[in-house]
């Protein structure tokens, strides 16, 4: 009986260690996080504009009135990967004929306005989610995240992480799937 009591903490430690090693091991794509929103309409959004930015706020009704494929990008000025992906999203909007819409997540309006002035503002509509409520409704795990929304307003793909490097290729593959 004493041996069993001695072995129990060791067994628990081994189980916890096994989960830690599994969690830290590679081979998983963080952009492939599951989302219950895939194949669902965009959740109800009602976001005001960012003070100092010349774009309207963002509502679900606005998204449904927009034609074609839309990219809903959740970003923040304090996010370095957001800065890295910004030129790629701008180019996708211009060259691929996609409508870019944005949600500025948990960001000060003056910082967001300065960031967009510096990098350019490719967004047709842009809502402020200072409180983070829309982020919760969208189920984001952090920024940046980009959702591909089809012409009917249905979320077809969620891409967690920056759209750069290998991520850009995976994003384009997902976009091609939506276009089919």
UniProtKB/TrEMBL annotation:
Alphabetical UniProt keywords: Cytochrome c-type biogenesis, Disulfide bond, Redox-active center
Entry keyword Disulfide bond: yes
Subcellular location: Cell envelope
UniProt GO MF annotations: disulfide oxidoreductase activity
UniProt-listed InterPro entries: Periplasmic_diS_OxRdtase_DsbE (IPR004799), Redoxin (IPR013740), Thioredoxin-like_sf (IPR036249), Thioredoxin_CS (IPR017937), Thioredoxin_domain (IPR013766), Thioredoxin_ResA/DsbE_sf (IPR050553)
Taxonomic placement: Bacteria, Pseudomonadati, Pseudomonadota, Alphaproteobacteria, Rhodobacterales
Main location: other
NCBIfam families in alphabetical order: dsbE
Listed SUPFAM superfamilies: Thioredoxin-like
Record domain Thioredoxin: where: 36-177
PROSITE patterns xrefs: THIOREDOXIN_1, THIOREDOXIN_2
This protein's record includes keyword Methyltransferase: no
Protein name in the entry: Cytochrome c biogenesis protein CcmG, thiol:disulfide interchange protein DsbE
Family: Belongs to the thioredoxin family. DsbE subfamily.
Gene Ontology terms: cellular component: outer membrane-bounded periplasmic space
GO biological process, one term: cytochrome complex assembly
């Amino acid at each position: 009986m004493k041996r069993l009591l001695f072995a129990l903490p060791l067994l628990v430690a081994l189980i916890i260690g096994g989960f830690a090693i599994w969690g830290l091991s590679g081979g998983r794509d963080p952009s492939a996080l599951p989302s219950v929103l895939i194949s669902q309409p965009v959740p109800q959004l009602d976001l005001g504009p960012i003070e100092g930015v010349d774009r309207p706020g963002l509502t679900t009704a606005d998204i449904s009135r927009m034609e074609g494929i839309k990219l809903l990008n959740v970003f923040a000025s304090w996010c370095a990967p957001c800065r890295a992906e910004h030129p790629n999203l701008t180019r996708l909007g211009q060259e691929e004929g996609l409508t870019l819409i944005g949600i500025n997540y948990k960001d000060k309006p003056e910082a967001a306005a300065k960031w967009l002035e510096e990098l350019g503002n490719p967004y047709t509509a842009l809502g402020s989610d200072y409180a983070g409520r829309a982020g919760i409704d969208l189920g984001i795990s952090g920024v940046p995240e980009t959702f591909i929304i089809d012409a009917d307003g249905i979320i077809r793909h969620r891409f967690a992480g920056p759209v750069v490097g290998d991520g850009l290729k995976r994003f384009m593959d997902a976009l091609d799937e939506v276009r089919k």
